[in-house]
Amino acid sequence: MLTAIIIDDELKSRQGLETMLHSMIENVSVVASVDSVNNGIKAIQKNKPDLVFLDIEMPKRDGFELFDAFDVIDFEVVFTTAHEQYATKAFRTTAIDYLLKPIDINLLKEAVERAREKREKDKVNKNFEVFVSNLKKDKSNQQIAISSSDGLLFIKIDNIIYLRGDGAYTYFFLKSGERITTSKNLKEYEDLLSDYDFFRVHKSSLIHLHEMKKYVRGEGGYVVMSNGDSVDVSKRRKENFLNALSKL
Amino acid sequence: MNESDPHIENNLLNSLKAFLGSHFLLNVINSIQSDIIIKDHKSGFDAIQLFNRVYKLAIRSSNQQYTDLNTELEFLESYAALEHMRFPKHRIKIHTDSSLDPNIEIPSFVVQSLLESVWLSGLERDKNTDLSITVQDNKILFSFSGPTGTFKIHPKVEAKTRLALDRLAMMNEDTELDNSIIQGDDTYLKVLLKPCS
Asked: How close is the nearest chain A Cα to the Cα of B130, in Å?
């Protein structure tokens, strides 16, 4: 059963979508239906849904602002809107689909199935990555498995300088100069690399502490990595970051 | 003024296109679809009736530079009722001076986009917002004002509002009205009010 939340400022629109999901699509349960981004954030935190149907243009805060509240987007997003012009931006965030109102039932069914498949695939991949990673935790030649479009790529942890997150994607910056993109969010790698002296210095950056060349003080400050790239340290994480450095 | 000015006709056609493809109408259709799905037959029926009225009046408006006040008011009231169906906690109230001749002709397809701007701003602020429209007989004169004498075009309806204001400017070109011209910058329109006679 896929759990879903609907965020839309129009009551009729929420009622219609909920009824479509309930009566025309199998195995979807709407666990909350709310009228604003603020209420949506609370509902997601409370219910941890698999899928969020999100309107874009709502009074006070638009749908895209929802993502600012989460370090990790651990749910699939289907935008539901009458506005065509946001499609590109939507897909750059985490959108699995973009449905134009009035909602076409066939496209809605496809969107739900896509979300279901992605949730199941993510679950399998995550389990496999953890399994492979554990197998390789002999501390002498540690590697990490990264999902790519055609399979899994194994990278030595020592070869990673830092990782940068952008919505549902993570970019690996390697000593070899390569940049690798993977469709997993940064939080997943933060968990995976927690035992290997990596630190989340910013909402969008996870650095390998052994690959730092310099830390420049400031409100949060920034670090210069071994490849010369600068990475901001957020004000909120600065204290924990300095503690982590003192334990190296 | 030339009644068949191709620029004005083209503007009217573009205004119609903008209205028929507007988010407002698409959301109304979505709302009607919801009424059908949730079996709220009364609401669905009422919405179809209003939608039908708005749709026909919009088509008619796009064929003529001027429309009589009665028809325009019917268009606006139907539009307002549809918005109220979408957002039942809010309502547009239209007050008309009873001394006005209902057959007075005013430029067509102008007021709705202004009204929608005010409505959207009001929804965002969750507060009452006023728009006053002065119509004077026998002249091409509209004036608009918000509570502070300025009127902000809402970005969601900017394109079609600009079309309406461009058309008004074209229609006013040949007149000698001295204080009905709308001056604006990118975000605000400052409107000079002409006192009602």
From this structure: 18
